[in-house]
Automatic annotation (TrEMBL):
Catalytic activity: beta-D-fructose 6-phosphate + ATP = beta-D-fructose 1,6-bisphosphate + ADP + H(+)
Identification of the protein by name: ATP-dependent 6-phosphofructokinase
Family, similarity comment: Belongs to the phosphofructokinase type A (PFKA) family. PPi-dependent PFK group II subfamily. Atypical ATP-dependent clade 'X' sub-subfamily.
Cofactor(s) essential for the protein: Mg(2+)
Gene coding for it: PFK
Pfam families documented for this protein: PFK
Naturally occurring in which organism (per UniProt): Marchantia polymorpha (Common liverwort)
Keywords (A to Z) from UniProt: Allosteric enzyme, ATP-binding, Cytoplasm, Glycolysis, Kinase, Magnesium, Metal-binding, Nucleotide-binding, Transferase
List of catalytic residues: 311 (proton acceptor)
UniProt-listed InterPro entries: ATP_PFK, PFKA, Phosphofructokinase_dom, PKF_sf, PyroP-dep_PFK_TP0108
Job of this protein: Catalyzes the phosphorylation of D-fructose 6-phosphate to fructose 1,6-bisphosphate by ATP, the first committing step of glycolysis.
Annotated residues for binding of ATP: 192, 255-256, 280-283
Amino acid sequence: MASLSSAIASTLSRVPNFTEAERCGLQQHRCAREQPLSQITNVTQINCAVAVSCDGRSRTARLQRQVLLGPGRGGFWGSSLGFQTRRMALTRRTVHRACSRAQATDEAVLEDVPHVTDWLPDLPSFPNPLQDNPAYTAVKQYFVEEDDVVAKNVVVKLRTPGEGTHFRRAGPRQKVYFKPDEVRACIVTCGGLCPGLNTVIREIVCGLWTQYGVRDILGIDGGYAGFYSNNTIQLTPKLVNDIHKRGGTILGTSRGGHDKTKIVAAIQDRGINQVYIIGGDGTQRGAAVIYEELKRRGVKVVVAGIPKTIDNDIAIIDKSFGFDTAVEEAQRAINAAHVEAESVKNGVGLVKLMGRYSGYIAMYATLASRDVDCCLIPEVPFYLEGAGGLYEFVRKRLRENGHMVIVVAEGAGQELIAESTLTTKSDASGNRLLLDVGLWLCQSLKENFAEANEPLTLKYIDPTYMIRAIPSNASDNVYCTLLAHSAIHGAMAGFTGFTVGPVNGRHAYIPILAATETQNRVNVNDRMWARLLSSTNQPDFLSYERVIEGKKAAKAAASVHKFAKVASNGMLPIQEKKTNGGVRDEVSVQSGDEKSKDAKETNVGAGQKDTKQLEPSVNLVVQGSSIEGKIGLMENPSVSNKTAES
Ligand SMILES: Nc1ncnc2c1ncn2[C@@H]1O[C@H](COP(=O)(O)OP(=O)(O)O)[C@@H](O)[C@H]1O
Ligand SMILES: O=P(O)(O)OC[C@H]1O[C@](O)(COP(=O)(O)O)[C@@H](O)[C@@H]1O
Ligand SMILES: [Mg+2]
């Protein structure tokens, strides 16, 4: 009867992940419990302790092999090596489908993507045509193994290696579920522009054509709405040959227009069976809705998402295409701002970069440049006045260097500006419309220096749309090619409802909803932000909460002051709350004669109940630190020389 030792030896010889040294060491293993082979071949699990000797070090490891059978696609081998301290080494316990989130316990989990055989289990498969393609047969191990997974976290504890979430590795499979002449693919681009869109389109078209022999590829014109309101464009390698050298998208794009029923009807009416959707978080959420509906209808149509966002705010993936290009192009604006600033006395160059909710472009552009003195991002609320505020820092840097450069991400400081210009407006996709932090900062800085009679020459550069409209750079071009290829390999292999992207350097298939349920934001507790702070030596604005609380207290005190003042004038204040277009006046005053006087002083006179007072001077003392100057465009009801303790 064969022993467990030989069973393990034979298993090990089939596991490519081990180095030769590890394999040798493992083959000299000492089984803790010898078991008859009959038990092993009949069960799905081999589990034993082995002594490992490799690299001159000895360690006892626990090895587990588990075979799980997945519907329609043969077996799946999960494998790993754990350490003695672990109760159980990496186990692939559950195959999760249809975007369901795994029930993670203390072991490894595969967050799998759906497959058309989930609802069409009898679909036939075919050998991958790549196996006869001279370019690819030259490369050994070109095909991805069914059990290749990519770990979400690669920094692990030695005592628990291999734990946590894993994704299916992207790449070509031995078997495909589409014959080339059966495929009718379509490509759509949605949302904002981003460098590299054309490269992705080009590589999907050329990849399908040359690798899989697909000849029927349609371009959807103008985003989601184009599915049902515009004509399609027939795409060929010839047509897309040069498009990667151009910015924008040859297909056009749009926000809004996601009508699930109309889109799915158009997909079916046109006989499309592979849908490639390029877009950001909103677009990917829309892609998930389309996938769900196609699945519900039980049709053989796969949906592949290619994540696009210049802001780099899509979760899980290492970075999004176009981001590198944006950071590189931002250098030109920063350089210009620097040249302008250093050419004059007290020169400040202010550059606004994109970044609605996350400040990655600003952070990386700052780190890359080394000319930036201060980087403001949405993740770090900042304030202007008082100790540790921006005004103080600008003065300090100007004293030291005579000039400075500020980079601000467009989503930064929104809460400060919003106080004055309350808006709930959003675009066709429901994205909140941003207030222009660049202009607001410009105005605030200029006014603050003018009031203090200090010279300041400020040059404001807003290159945002110029950055986003350029073609992708060399590194993004290669990246876009990999994304496109990952997408077509996945679609041809029958996977659906997935988005692609590199996870710790290896491309993976990620359930769409897993990629969109959270947003990638700069982690200000991470060392990268510390690197930025140390490179600029800017304030950390950690007192933000305290300062804002102070302002609120001052505002409240000001209301009381106004109330008292009106009352002492013999007027009868009417205490009521009025909501005027989102602006709430705590106290409104009704008085004919007092109207103009009060309006001048408080801007809250009859007939002016709707107006807010803009740009009042304030002088606050917050926990001993003086906050002086104008609060830009902040709404403030007649506060002057008030003191508040928070
Ligand atoms: N939750 C959603 N469900 C369906 N479609 C959505 C959803 N969110 C956004 N979309 C659609 O996705 C498209 C692009 O979204 P948008 O947020 O503008 O850009 P991005 O994809 O770049 O984030 C729009 O057509 C929008 O209508
Ligand atoms: O003016 P538009 O087209 O609405 O786009 C502006 C927004 O798009 C963004 O570039 C983000 O878009 P994506 O994430 O889709 O690339 C933001 O930084 C910016 O606020
Ligand atoms: Mg978006």
